[in-house]
Amino acid sequence: MPRHFDTTFDVVKELKPSYPVYCLRPNILRETAQRFVEMFPGDVLYAVKCNPHPEVMRYLHEGGVRHFDTASPEEIALVRRQFPGMKAYFMHPVKSRDAIRNAHRVFGIDHYVIDTVEELEKIREETEGDKKLVIHVRLATPPAGATYNLSAKFGARPMVAAELLKKVDEYGYEAGLCFHVGSQCTTPNGYRIAVELIRQVVDFSGVQVRHIDVGGGFPGQYMNQRGASLEEFMDEIKDCIRWLDMPDTTFMCEPGRALVSSGVSLITQVHLRKEDTLFINDGVYGSLSETVTGQLRYPVRPLRINGEFNQEETLDFTIYGPTCDNMDVLPAAVSLPADIREGDWIEFGHIGAYSNALATHFNGFFPEMQVTVGEAFPFVDGEFPYVA
Ligand SMILES: *Cc1c(COP(=O)(O)O)cnc(C)c1O
């Protein structure tokens, strides 16, 4: 169990960490999971890739998450090791034959995704004639509001999806349809457009579709991207489900980011200041890789234990990470107190999604220290009150 502190200020006062520290908020992770599970009219699958840390998954499970969206044998094993009775789903449209055999034989996985007939044949061949499988056909969706669109890589076009459904049905499997609007989708409209496509595909195929999976993509709150509220997303989705009018169908979703982003912050330390440039101990090869496209900016707050910052004057700083690569720099300048100096700390908020999951060991730097913290990262009335 990680050590517990009331505040992140207590963390820096006590540990004076020269290494990056992930501050997990068990309460926020539990409450977010609970809210999601209560509001979504169906099964909530946590997308494990977003943050596979066992402590994070534990709090989500305590908040009521009982299903896990996985994409590799390693992720399936991770879920089963930690939660032996929980259900994992193999939701990757392109799987190796070994992975399919392993998932089916060793773990008894019964939900799979395809977007081609070739993948369907692979599953049929590697699952020893087992008919008790649910095969989801992944539908490509038009780009609508998502910061990271994935439909170029995965998903069948509507006519192809309808043909695949027929084939799934003909082979005697239960049929499902799924889509993923892309990550950090800031408006609910993308889900409506996708559900309208679902309707057409269902009607055209004439197949009884037992499962509809609306994927992930629900947004986190960042400096430059607030996104609609979870209530707005859920209202839209409930409305879509009423409109579909498919009472014998189970609905599913696969949130990653929205479940974990606000539940973790990261404390970093300034190791050198060179005029308006700061060198800190984490960067784009570690926890901060999601900043590289310039599309997401985390809220920050400066922390100092021996004295106060001069809050009057701020300065825009270029922030470099610890590796020797000159690409290891945040793409946007960060506004911080003008008197920030070596030894101060900078806390990055809302960093639970795609941070530790993407960290490398490049140059010998690897962020791995974890603590739990009681206080939330400050976010009041839709605003981050700190200098940033
Ligand atoms: C990554 C992924 C998710 C989770 O996406 P978030 O944007 O983190 O909610 C869900 N489903 C699929 C298929 C994914 O690839």
Automatic annotation (TrEMBL):
Associated pathway: Amine and polyamine biosynthesis; putrescine biosynthesis via L-ornithine pathway; putrescine from L-ornithine: step 1/1
Cofactor: pyridoxal 5'-phosphate
Alphabetical GO biological process terms: putrescine biosynthetic process from arginine, via ornithine
CDD domains: PLPDE_III_ODC (cd00622)
Active site: 324
Residues recorded with modification N6-(pyridoxal phosphate)lysine: 49
Catalytic reactions on record: L-ornithine + H(+) = putrescine + CO2
PROSITE patterns: ODR_DC_2_1 (PS00878)
Enzyme Commission designation: 4.1.1.17
SUPFAM superfamilies noted in UniProt: Alanine racemase C-terminal domain-like, PLP-binding barrel
Keywords: Lyase, Pyridoxal phosphate
Domain Orn/DAP/Arg decarboxylase 2 C-terminal: 262-352
Cross-referenced Gene3D superfamilies: Alanine racemase, Lyase, Ornithine Decarboxylase, Chain A, domain 1
Sequence ranges assigned to domain Orn/DAP/Arg decarboxylase 2 N-terminal in this UniProt record: 30-261
Chain coiled-coil ranges: none
Pfam families documented for this protein: Orn_Arg_deC_N, Orn_DAP_Arg_deC
GO terms for MF: ornithine decarboxylase activity
CC annotations in GO: cytoplasm
Enzyme class, broadest EC rank: lyase
Matching InterPro entries: Ala_racemase/Decarboxylase_C (IPR009006), De-COase2_C (IPR022643), De-COase2_N (IPR022644), De-COase2_pyr-phos_BS (IPR022653), Orn/DAP/Arg_de-COase (IPR000183), Orn_de-COase (IPR002433), PLP-binding_barrel (IPR029066)
Homology family: Belongs to the Orn/Lys/Arg decarboxylase class-II family.
Name used for this protein in its record: ornithine decarboxylase
